[in-house]
Amino acid sequence: MKNALNSKVVVITGASSGIGEAMAKLYAQMGAKVVLGARSEEKLKALTKQIIADGGTAAYCATDVTVAEDCKRLIDRAVGEFGGIDVLICNAGISMRAIFDDVDLSVLHRLMDVNFWGTVYCSKYALPYLQRSKGSLVGISSVAGLHGLPGRTGYSASKYAMTGLLETIRIENLKKGLHVMVACPGFTASNVRFSALVADGSQQGSTPREEGKMMTAEQVAKIVARGIARRRRLCLMEAEGRATHFVKKFAPAFLDKMFYWVMSKEPDSPFK
Ligand code: NDP
Q: Can you give the CATH number for the domain in which 136 is found?
């Protein structure tokens, strides 16, 4: 794989866990200067220390992506430390599990605040630097951002909203050399299902799926790096993502049934 990340400044939100953490480690090994954002300052501090001890270059900034000023501080930190930004990866995200009949509206607001508005704020503040470097703006969406995922209305809606935002930024910047990529992992072993919000807004605290049978965060990090190197628009990961993208074009009603069937098989599924 061509190493497009060597000596590049890469800002990653949601870097304290899962896919974000795996990208931070891998991209630092590939020679990137990584700038890490998330709310858990202690985890970011420890990860930064580990990356530097392993010979990499890293900085961090405690960031709640739902707070615009925090996102500005993260971007300013990257520019202050390393002089610019080549890649912004909007990865911070949360999920949910409840049917629309039951879900408290605050859950949908929270999903939009983290997944969509977090992407808006970081993209907005990083854009001038990304335009200058003709760099990459990347959103970590989901297969749920390709087709509605039952029990995850707010999640799918927030990922579709990210796609609309990023696609439009891409077109507006068509003549400025900016690369914009929407990456769509399928189920990936991480903390995301444990922290997912249920109908009343509390955290699920467990996973309804077999985490051991999923892709690993490290695999996703590698595929995203390849997508950046090839300046792809859409980065699909595995059979699930590719099949969803393809079948949606030709047999969307069949895909509805498949998604219903697959998700209704989860233990304690909120629909049967
Ligand atoms: P994790 O729960 O392991 O990681 C989520 C990251 O987001 C954490 O670093 C968390 O850090 C951060 N985060 C959550 N809320 C905020 C906030 N308000 N401000 C800043 N950071 C925040 O999940 P994943 O690694 O799986 O998820 C990463 C991305 O991948 C998400 O966008 C998710 O939707 C997407 N994805 C995941 C899939 C999966 O099956 N795992 C499948 C498809 C897409 P902290 O709590 O410290 O703030």
A: 3.40.50.720
